[in-house]
Each structure stands twice: as C-alpha cells, then as structure tokens.
Amino acid sequence: MGKSLHATIGDNYGSQKIYYRKSRRYYSWWELALMRHTKGMYMSIPWKLLLKWGINGTSETSYGRQVMKNAWSVYTKEEYCSLADYGYRILVEAITARETYSITCPVLLLCGERDHAGSAKRYNRNWAKFEGYKLCWITDAGHNSNTDSPEQVNNLIELFVGELSSEI
Prior knowledge:
Number of helices: 9
Number of strands: 3
Helix content: 55-70%
Strand content: 5-15%
Structural class: mainly alpha
Oligomer: single chain
Radius of gyration: 17 Å
Low-confidence stretches: 1-6, 12-21
Order of helices and strands: EHHHHHHEHEHH
Shape: globular
C-alpha cells in the first residue's frame, strides 16, 4: 500500500478545534472564564441585537451575512444561547484537561484579515508562530472567510492538498 494523505485545515473556529487539548498558553484566564458563562451573557442581550452582532460580526459580505442569518433563523434565542454555551463549555473543558498531544499531520490555518470574532486572529498568529503551522490570511474576509471569499479559500486548500499529494 502507498502512503495515505492526512491533513488538518482550520478555518477560524475550526482551527481552535485542532488545538483542543494543547496547553493553555494560547488562552487567557479571563477568556476561559467568559466562555464558561456564555449562556448568561448571551441571554442578557436582546435577541435582535444578538442576531445583528453575530451576523455582522462574522461576515464581511452580504452573502456571508445571509448564510449566517439563514443558519440562525432556525433557532429560538434560548436554543441558540444553549448551543453556544455548550460549545464553549466543551472547548474550555478540553483546554483545561491538561492532556497534551502532538498533531503529526500537516496543518493549514485560514483566517480572515477582518476577523473580529473573539481572539481568532491572535490564536492563529500564535499557532503559526509557536507550532510552525502554515497560516494564510484571507483578503477582505471576516470570521467566516469561506463564505466571504470562497474562491480564495478553495484555491488555498487546493494548493495545500496539491503540495501534500506531490510528497506522496
């Protein structure tokens, strides 16, 4: 059998997923504390305002904003806040679990140049700097860079996979 191709490609929040069990050096104590209280914080914000912030805060294009609006429109405020809370709690549990591991496959990090969601830009810069992962900035894109600039994202993924394929 030939070699198999394994790679991890992270797009903003997805790139956080690949680092779940890595040390806490990338997350401040206050970020972890706030993530533990997401539901209470989100429930204190009027639903229309939370929708507006979430939709406008993750996308730079009208298409990206429409994708977010469609995704969020299926939830009630309670459902959305509960889902967000659950996701952040899992992330905090994984970060604070004190388990370590090494990612042994090639990694590509993608981050929108205009990403203003949390600390995603800082996380990506640090992962690239300290772990040696390849980081590509997506021009004119926010947190959901794949909806703001699908052509650029797809081209970068194709190049990355092509480089890996040529190594096999």
